[in-house]
Amino acid sequence: MDGVIIPHCCECMRRLYDGWVEMNASVKPQFAYQFSVPTVNTNLSVEYFSKTLNQFKEDIEKQFNKHISDESLIRSIKVYNKTRQLLNRLYELRKREKPSVSGFQVQEILDICMSTPKEKFNEYFEPYLQELEMRETGVFNDFRYRVLLYGGMYNPSIVKYIEGDGTGGIVICEDACHGYRYFDTEINMEADTEPMTAISRRYLGKMPCARMAGSHGERTPDIVVKLVREFRADAVIYFATKRCDNLFWEYQFVKDALEKENIPIKKIEGDISGDIPQREIRSFIELLDFIEA
Length: 293
Known about the structure:
This protein is α/β, with parallel strands linked by helices.
């Protein structure tokens, strides 16, 4: 590995960077870099983050003796916007009464997307997506409750368990950092002619995670309710990652907003790997029978 780049998005990530820096020379990469990400979305924060990204670009150029031109950034923006368009089309399939793709399949697609050069992903994924769009049958034949999964970084085993035999659910959306938030908003080059400003505006203005100031009581609850309606979710599972104070703080705001709309919500806690509280998940989905009745 030539380098590791870690944004200071929360204290856990900052300490992760400290851990990299403190490792001995046989493990530590030559290029260990951390940059700050604002927690507010204002004109001033967009300007600040744009300057931070420009400094980041200059440091990469110096480290690896490469030049990154505005033209290359614009080309890359177009490629990534194409990826976002394809993934949004994928999520449209999950709004159907009988989705033609499962949550676990979407999770695998996103894993591939995040680890594949976007040019290659776009080339190979679009024909597959067209096949999915032409399917008229649902991925499951039996009735299943439609579950929206909310969190930061959630444990992927949750999706597989919800959709497993006997549990009775299907995950139709993930309002999470490696779910819908990854691609929901495109970069608008018409509003900003300078690439870094456009990138900055997109990343600060997209669907917020719990670290963003103002998301708790202002933006996030409304967004979750909107997604529940769009994807016709029957219930929400709120996954609070252990030691993420932001997610624990945000929960009450989301819970209050959903309860006003009579939308069942269940909070579960855990790590992003390892065991999951299967009994809690199963019992919650079973209880939906009584709520529906």
